[in-house]
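[Automated response] Your request has been received and processed.

Submitted sequence:
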Amino acid sequence: MDKNHDDQHVKANCPFQHTFFEKVIKDQNPKYITKVLRSYLVDINEFDFSHYDAFLWTGGLGNIYENNSHNKKQLEIFTKIVELGKPIWGSCWGLQVFVTVLGGKITKSSIPEFGFANNIKIKNDHYIYRNKKDLFTAPGHHYDSVENIPNDFKVISENDFSIQSIVHKKYNIICTQYHPELPYNFIGNLMTYWKTNYLDKMTGEKFSELIHNLEQLENRDLYDRKLELVNWLNSLEN
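Generated structure:
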């Protein structure tokens, strides 16, 4: 996230996205130590990434194919991290950064997904989907999607809208277009703050129905929202 995006979360009275990653991590193992890198506050050339055992990348509000200083810095950070050969998880914006650095392509989606990604189908067996339903719904909110995956990656889930997750065939790099770490109603709260942005895409009634559905999805948790992230964290201990 850049400073503008962080400021928008504050104005919306919503937590920063990294806090949800941190909660899942601490729930799995309270001994884990986490550190948040805000790239707009740190000189990344002086930051020692080698001190860390694994990396997680949050979502964001930008478009990775745009040419700006924030995107350039994001790409530079991932280039430094991937060379370490350590486990990496990326959600949404994280996936889009990884794909871009590694030679794939992100483009504007013909149909965006608002609030959740529906009918995600597991295409290839992978341990992160252990005990996951073959067809599931997950928190998701994106205007962009993967057009081409990088070499040495494979698709492990998708729906009718986009590729939903890819993994490296050799290294422990996991990317999801959706957000297993984010509560559905967190996305709903942000959408409510930005409500006017959606009213040219849907009626007020449809918008209210969507926000209600996000509340219900979080309360029921029919698809074990955090499971794949938990499976990945557990794999780091083996």
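Summary generated for your ticket: The chain has a mean pLDDT of 94. The chain is about 35% helix and 20% strand.
If you did not submit this request, please reply to this message.
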